[in-house]
Structure prediction request, 323 residues.
Amino acid sequence: MRVVRAMRFGGPEVLVPGEAPAPVAGAGQVVVEVSVAGMTFVETQIRQGTDKWHDKPNLPYVPGTVVAGRVIAVGADVDPNWTGRRVVARTASTGGFAEQAVAGVDDLLAVPDALGLPEACALQPDGSAALGLVENARIRSGEWVLIEAAAGSLGSLLVQLVRASGARVIGAARGTRKHDLIRRLGADAVVDYSEPDWTRQVIAVTGGAGPDVVFDGVGGKIGRAAFEVTARGGRFSVHGASSGTATVIDPAQAQQRGVTVIGIEQLPAFGPHMLRWGAQIMAEAAAGRIRPVIGQTFPLERAADAHAAIENRSGLGKTLLLI
Prediction:
């Protein structure tokens, strides 16, 4: 079968198409015939060898942790009724950039009939994470919520979920193309955080008070600046570090301003809830209440171009491989 391997740590060019034996399902596992493979920004950092939060995979390795397709084989102790079903699946830590992938039966979600496989894949794991972030932040109707990287896969879902909660959204991103998308998704205001006065714009939009909630997926200088304008008594939620550095706030400073910091350490606690949230977000999409943004797709052999699109921030929403 066709696969793409990372031959070493480095730029997108280390992703090389090749061949591999078809996998076999072990006990408690299934084999998925992959139609769509997803990817995240974190996976590009793992490929670079710069990620600080995950163990480095052994080289060479097949990237990809989420796939969508049909179950074509089941192992021992697996209900045979899974065979032929459309699923979205987590593949543990690697293995998704391939024509077939192995997943544990406990890591499968059946895809609703009304939802396409690309849409299902685009919602995982970002849709689950977005539900968890919104739940943890306890957003209330009428609040102002600042969402960084609001045109990305996770950010675009946050925009929609926050709006559905009755809150008002300020979407932050770079460039007119991303701003247009954020407005179409329902944001009340947009700001460009490549502009030096972007935080003043946030203050102006919120009538001088600052946002009640901030979703910080960028970190670095942008994350720090967003904390500085968070309203007194607000919540500052950290979920990413696309800048390379997660935002860390001095507890004394947060207390002085009455800001509750929900740090990046919230993410590991999401684990037990991800399947529940995953089913929930797919049901919302199948009912037309949430729209995953699929900005660009690539064939398997162009996996390097897909990773490059994520890294250079040129894409909108989710980037997928169509197998």
The chain has two domains: 2-123+292-322, 129-269. The chain has a mean pLDDT of 95. DSSP finds ten helices and 15 strands in the chain. The two ends are 11 Å apart (CA to CA).
